Amino acid sequence: MSGNYGTGALEGQIEVDWLAELDFSFGKAFLDDQLKANLGFNKILNRGFVGKIDYGNGSAAVESNGSRQNIQLRLIYSFGSKFGKSKEDRTRPQEENRIRDEN
Length: 103
Hints:
- There is one protein chain.
- By secondary structure, this protein is mainly beta.
- It has one domain (2-102).
- Helix content is 11%, strand content 54%.
- It has one helix and eight strands.
- The strands form two sheets. The chain has a four-stranded antiparallel sheet, with no helix packed on it. The chain has a four-stranded antiparallel sheet with strand order 2-3-6-7, with no helix packed on it.
- The chain is elongated and about 90 Å long.
């Protein structure tokens, strides 16, 4: 879970209302941790920049929310290291003989 909150502000001629954002993500592993699933909900609470600019002789309302809410499903499967040498194949006497033969 992640989120942020900002109170209103006044900077020069720009007056900004409060800002907020809230994201959730859930994950679970299956098949002896070979398959991992992640479900994310982004910008559940999404209040972007809402403000007013005072020019002195007039004003303008400004609103900028950026991206919208979305849901992401991510699946990751690990095939493992089937292509590498297994450590059980390397016994100590074999390695010692190999080192002696080369020296």
